[in-house]
Write a structure and sequence with these properties.
561 residues; Isoleucyl-tRNA Synthetase, Domain 1; RNA-binding; 4-stranded antiparallel sheet; Gyrase A, domain 2; alpha/beta; 17 strands; 14% strand
RNA sequence: GCGGAAUUAGCUCAGCUGGAUAGAGCGUCGGUCUACGAAACCGAAGGUCGCAGGUUCGACUCCUGCAUUCCGCGCCA
């Protein structure tokens, strides 16, 4: 509809050029907006204000000339000039309700577009090291990353979801030592407790399982414990498997699935890390100093150079990161989107610098990053900081246990990633109008309920029959709702383009609100047959759009509550 | 000190990348169920968009400076 109007306006501008009123047509298509105030029409255009200066006309005069030059068409009911020179367009009402027929034919695919044209994109998210349970920050990353995957999928990209984890470094060594210490009956208060050891009570559980020689099955491995407290390698393998399994279970409970798990150790095993280092040395972007090997990251925008190989011989963490991202590039991803906590933002410059240093033709802004800010959890008006299980932080599992998967997902994804998030447990728990999740789900359930009643009273075909009577939908509440439904594909496309899933959450609240308002203003089943069927079609379309939107968030759309 | 993010109603947050009188939910106050789900709806009050400049037809949005908060700043990951 926007595009159609834009074409009409362009044609009017060309007409003015041929009359000599304007010198030339602007290169960009005219900008068209949805006004906030319904009195300002359905769509508005600012072209007269933008062009006024060059045309040597007052904006309002130019606006009038544009309106006069518009071709005859079936789209526009009327056009006004308002404010400093806006042109406000009122669309013929039947154009608003045609969308209902489209929703009927596209069903669960309504809202999808093919902007991505099947090109490959990878979304890497969560990527927690297997040293403890997932915490709320990981939960936010899981919700945002999964939703980004769904959005990119819905806009025609070929999406791979990847989870990267460190299974070989110092943190894993600390984990193994902590489990061993627990297995030997030590506690964090003891003087010989490992330095930087993990203190949560889950370490004791892992130690007990190891000593009992249990077998664990994680997504990508199965390990049976040896029970030998002196075998640190066995303890390490077992502990990693245990915590991987626990993270898998948390993610499954959170309705998040990955296509691929990538192990940091594989980069060492395959020689990719050494190869990356020698490529960087060959490219001339490195130097030796203080018995260490440095990368000149400062020539790629970093504020200082970084050590790649420490004087003791080991690599710093960002070297495998560079090798990892080279691997992603070689796998053919046109785009890679890394979803991470904002506390890791300093790695962005280093990874990109390393990739540039490889001279492999990788674009400067590749990969892309979505960073989320911290999450604090509030309950009973105070901040919750401790989890029994993990010790120092609230876990994702805690949240799911308290408020359920749907509410957890909704709350973690409903705010812009760049905003710090306060998770209000009491609000998420409320089964009332205070809770936006239930508000939206309630709209869906209410629509489903009406359709069940219609089905038993009228049988099949009533909704489809309504498509023949959409001109009966003339009340403001019905038209407002239909217009909102029609915006859905644009909302999905914009959210995917901007990598901001919260747009979808906000849209759903609006759609639910418009539906509730329509419901309260007009009877659906108790109406004249033609009107009844038309309204029923609108209800069915609404249910479909809300279901499609909730699906993008990974939140369920219940028929009854 | 340097870098990143943020600052909008009592609280939690949107604000479509520069548009019209800055919006929503919660909370507060007042109304709506003998009809399809009241987990809903309708209305009211509530603002110096952190501060000060600048850019232009027009700034919450862009630029500069300042203030405050959070996060980073290791030959840790």
């Amino acid at each position: 509809m926007k595009a159609e109007l834009a074409a009409l306006i362009s044609s009017a501008l060309e007409q003015l050029v041929s009359q000599g009123t304007l010198a030339d047509v602007p290169e960009a298509p005219p900008q068209i907006d949805h006004p906030k105030d319904p009195a300002h029409g359905d769509l508005s255009c600012n072209v007269a204000m933008v062009m006024a200066k060059r045309a040597g006309l007052a904006p309002r005069d130019l606006a009038q000339q544009v309106i006069d030059a518009l071709p005859i068409n079936a789209l526009i009911a009327s056009a006004d000039i308002a404010g400093p020179g806006f042109i406000n367009f009122f669309i013929n009402p039947e154009r608003h309700t045609e969308i209902i027929s489209r929703i009927f034919s596209e069903r669960s695919t309504f809202g999808q577009t093919n902007i991505g044209e099947g090109r490959k994109v990878q979304v890497e998210f969560v990527s927690a090291n297997p040293t403890g349970p997932l915490h709320v920050g990981h939960g936010r990353g899981a919700a945002i990353g999964d939703c980004l995957g769904r959005l990119l999928d819905a806009t025609g990209w070929a999406v791979q979801r990847e989870f990267y984890y460190n299974d070989a470094g110092q943190q894993i060594q600390n984990l193994a030592l902590s489990v061993q210490a627990r297995a030997m009956g030590k506690s964090p208060d003891d003087t010989d407790w490992p330095e930087d050891g993990y203190q949560g009570s889950y370490i004791q559980d892992v130690a007990n399982a190891f000593m009992a020689a249990e077998t664990v099955q994680a997504a990508d491995r199965e390990i049976t414990a040896s029970g030998d407290v002196n075998d640190l390698d066995a303890i390490r393998d077992f502990a990693v498997a245990c915590l991987r399994r626990e993270q898998d279970q948390d993610l499954r409970a959170f309705a998040v699935a990955f296509d691929h798990y990538f192990l940091e150790s594989s980069l060492y095993d395959s020689g990719a890390v050494d190869e990356t280092v020698s490529t960087l040395v060959r490219s001339g972007h490195t130097f030796e100093q203080d018995n260490a090997l440095w990368l000149r990251t400062s020539s790629f925008g970093d504020d200082k150079d970084r050590v790649m190989r420490k004087s003791e011989g080991g690599y710093t963490y960002f070297v495998p990161d560079v090798a990892y991202h080279l691997n992603k590039w070689q796998r053919g991803f046109e785009r890679v989107i890394n979803e991470q906590g904002a506390d890791h933002h300093s790695t962005i410059t280093r990874v990109r610098a390393g990739l540039q240093g490889l001279d492999a033709g990788i674009p400067k802004g590749w990969p892309e990053y979505v960073l989320h800010q911290m999450v604090t959890v509030m309950r009973d008006g105070t901040e919750v900081k401790l989890s029994k299980r993990a010790g120092s932080y609230v876990t994702l599992r805690d949240l799911i246990d308290w408020v359920g998967c749907d509410a957890t997902r909704y709350f973690l994804v409903a705010r812009a990633p760049s905003s710090q998030l306060t998770f209000d447990v009491d609000l998420a728990l409320a089964k009332s109008n205070e809770n936006p999740v239930y508000y939206i789900q309630y709209a869906h359930a209410r629509a489903a309920s009406i359709r069940r009643k219609a089905q038993s009273a009228l049988g099949d075909g009533a909704e489809a029959a309504g498509l023949e009577h959409l001109d009966c939908l003339c009340e403001p509440e019905a038209l407002t709702l239909a217009i909102t439904l029609g915006r859905f594909p644009e909302v999905v496309a914009t959210a995917a383009e901007r990598l901001e899933p919260h747009d979808v959450a906000n849209y759903l609240r609006q759609a639910a609100s418009d539906f509730h308002a329509f419901y309260n203003a007009h009877h659906i089943l108790d109406a004249e047959p033609d009107i009844q069927r038309a309204r029923l079609a609108l209800v069915a379309a609404t249910q479909q759009v809300i279901a499609n939107g909730l699906n993008l968030l990974g939140v369920s759309a219940p028929d009854t509550m």
